[in-house]
Design a protein that fits this description.
18% helix, 3-stranded antiparallel beta sheet, single chain, 117 residues, alpha+beta
Length: 117
Amino acid sequence: MLRRSMLHAIMIALLGHAETVAQGTFDPRVLRVTQDAHIFTDKNGDPDAGFMVKAIVQNRGTKARIVVSATLSCSEGEWTRRRTILLDTEETDEVRFGFPEPTIGAEDVKSIVRVSQ
């Protein structure tokens, strides 16, 4: 019986600690977004024009996994990419997303980057 209660106390202590970590402040920010024409290489090794979206992301909260998603839209369609990054408190990182689908002649090219848990 003593053994079971000790195990129960250890589990509560560990779970309580996990809740404390999970309740930390989640505060990622997208500081800057740029998009540029970019030349990719297709699976055959041939050049393929498209766009590169770059985002500067900063974590102002506690260390966290951050889902960064970028959407590129233009006259030829809309595409979304997602990437999960791990950032410490006050850490900043550049996240890049390649979009080879549109052509260099695409019009009204816009990009947006969002962050979430």
